[in-house]
Write a structure and sequence with these properties.
The protein is of the alpha/beta class. The protein has 4 domains: 160 residues, HUPs (Rossmann fold), CATH 3.40.50; 101 residues, Glutamyl-tRNA Synthetase, domain 3; 89 residues, Beta Barrel (Ribosomal Protein L25, Chain P), CATH 2.40.240; 58 residues, Ribosomal Protein L25, Chain P (Beta Barrel). A hairpin with a 2-residue loop joins β23 and β24. α3 crosses α12 and α12 crosses α13. The two termini are 29 Å apart. It binds one RNA strand through α1, β5, β6, α8 and α9.
RNA sequence: GCCGCGGUAGUAUAGCCAGGCCAAGUAUGCGGGCCUUUCGAGCCCGUGACCCGGGUUCAAAUCCCGGCCGCGGCACCA
């Protein structure tokens, strides 16, 4: 069926669809998120609560983007809260606070409020006193034995002491009377709960910050809230209505509900989503740390394009729009999802296509002398959707570079924007045969990219493949110098790339085809 | 081992709560075609799935039970 016929049928049968549309418009109608349970317009408060001990990866981006999207959809607000209450085993990294802020901004996630838990310690102490006073929590002075007792469904006898005693002991904890592991605040749940970790879970513990100082507050505090306690208190204090977090928190939700109930706080709605993996990429913090340690010099840092970190994807040329679209498409499903690279690349390609200028790049270049009757001007479109072109004056005897594979595959080629030639490999000669683009089409002569030798720039292409970075070299039109680090381009018939380094030669990272 | 959650095409997702309009929609992938001075984009056509077994019902992807498989959790981590 010819195009005209297709158009006619479309217009006859579906006139409402026949209006010319652009790719962007189609994407605008991306699927909507399912409604938030119990949400009221203007009263939704969500939060994204990362631990600043590492850069963000695409898995963390999921709750961040969903929290933002829902807040926006319901005209509510979103809170960014750094959960840095463990200076001992998950020590926060000072730089990570900014890295996360940067990544979020880049992803288009805008937050309305920001808090840092290590700067809110008084609130946690206050809440602890309230819990102690109301009999929702107690001080466990049994040390290691306390945990053992709970494992057997029993508990430390201090559980039954009066609120006055509890408050008194809490002050002693704060003033440094007890060392690590000697005293701990527990929330009363059910000492016989089938899940032992839920039995009277720990709300605050002592961390000797003279040994393991906190990057923000040093050794100012020794009594630190645990994740579950800090989260519950802050979600309540900040009026969070909807918590969207990974499903590894399901048990935590159950723990937290005991506190909400005892303190008569209204709990938010909890939505648990599955973890997200990206095909062919490593996301795990610990694994990234490990391979970086084991292979000094091999990786570039958090933003290595071989990692599934936000910074890595950015450096590779993935757009925030594509990440957002993919994540919204995933929705709030409970199951684990493995994002296929092909899918991400496809969405990204459509976005990049519109905004990436075209440059001719030749991999493994081979020089050919042009043989023709007179000088000619070649016009290379900067972008197929726009009229601008780059002009090259090519004269008999000039040298051009062609991809050696292209000349292997065909005895005749059309140099894009110039003319048709027959290839004489032995003499490294291109003999003009003319005939225009119509002839090239009809005769199935491949239209290939080429680079004038007099105006070629050396280019190094780095292609991430698993844990390797495959390097190849070639030449590109000198027009590549018009672009800066961070710009994306399409190398004609090669793929999309992002400029990573400029200098005497140019280093680019291969994004995808 | 113990607790919890889930299983729709190669991948991802819609539908499941409120059973029929679902011989299952969409994206991507794959095959074919159109268009095009790129093997890109766009357009058209095609391909391909309800984990298995029982039950309830006039009717089940949807509800119930069992099995299998997958995932999460079982910290004084977040």
């Amino acid at each position: 069926m010819g195009l005209e016929e297709q158009k006619r049928i479309l217009e006859d049968e579906y006139p409402e669809l026949a209006r010319p549309g652009r790719a962007g418009e189609k994407r605008a109608e991306t699927k909507r998120l399912p409604p938030l349970p119990g949400a009221e317009k203007g009263r939704v408060v969500t939060r994204f609560a990362p631990n600043p001990d590492f850069a963000m990866h695409i898995g963390n981006a999921r709750p961040a983007i969903l929290s933002h999207e829902y807040a926006r959809e319901y005209r509510g607000k979103m809170i960014l809260r750094f959960e840095d209450t463990d200076p001992r085993t998950k020590t926060p990294i000072k730089e990570a606070y900014d890295l996360i802020r940067e990544d979020l901004k880049w992803l288009g996630v805008k937050w309305d409020e920001e808090h840092v838990q290590s700067l809110r310690m008084e609130f946690f102490y206050e809440a602890a006193r309230e819990a102690l006073e109301k009999g929702c929590a107690y001080i466990d002075l049994c040390g290691e034995a306390g945990r053992e007792l709970l494992r057997e469904g029993k508990y430390c006898k201090t559980r039954d002491n009066s609120p006055e005693w509890q408050l008194g002991e809490f002050d002693k904890m704060l003033s440094g009377v007890y060392g690590e592991k000697e005293a701990v605040v527990r929330v009363k749940t059910d000492p016989n709960h089938p899940n032992p970790s839920i039995r009277d879970w720990v709300a605050l513990r002592i961390i000797d910050t003279s040994k393991t100082p906190h990057p923000l507050v040093g050794d100012k505090y020794i009594v630190w809230p645990t994740y579950n306690f800090a989260v519950t208190v802050d979600d309540h204090l900040m009026g969070v209505t909807h918590v969207i977090r990974a499903k590894e928190h399901e048990v935590n939700t159950e723990k937290q509900l005991f506190l909400y109930k005892c303190l008569r706080w209204e709990p938010p709605r909890f939505i648990h989503i599955g973890r997200l993996k990206l095909e062919g990429f490593i996301l795990s913090k610990s694994f990234i740390r490990k391979i970086m340690d084991e292979n000094p010099g091999k990786f570039w840092g958090f933003d290595d394009p071989r990692f599934g970190t936000i910074a890595g994807l950015r450096r590779r040329g993935i757009t925030p729009e594509a990440i957002r679209e993919v994540i919204l498409h995933l929705g709030v499903k409970h199951t684990e999802a493995t994002l296929s690279w092909a899918n991400l690349a496809s969405i990204n390609r459509k976005i990049l296509d519109a905004r990436s200028d075209r440059i001719m790049f030749v991999e493994s270049p081979r020089a050919f002398r042009v043989s023709m009757d007179k000088c000619r001007e070649a016009s290379i479109p900067v972008h197929p959707d726009r009229p601008e072109t780059r002009k090259y004056r090519i004269c008999p005897g000039d040298i051009v570079y062609l991809d050696s594979r292209d000349v292997e595959e065909s005895p005749r080629v059309r140099l894009l924007g110039l003319d048709n030639f027959s290839v004489e490999k032995e003499r490294s000669l291109l003999e003009m045969i003319g005939g225009g683009v119509e002839y090239a089409r009809k005769a199935s002569i491949p239209i290939i990219q080429w680079v004038p030798a007099s105006r070629a720039v050396d280019v190094k292409v780095l292609k991430p493949e698993g844990l390797e970075l495959v390097e190849s070299r070639g030449v590109a039109e000198e027009a590549i110098r018009n672009y800066r680090i961070g710009d994306t381009l399409q190398f004609v018939r090669y793929g999309f790339i992002r400029i990573d380094k400029t200098g005497s030669d140019v280093t680019v990272i291969y994004t995808h085809d």
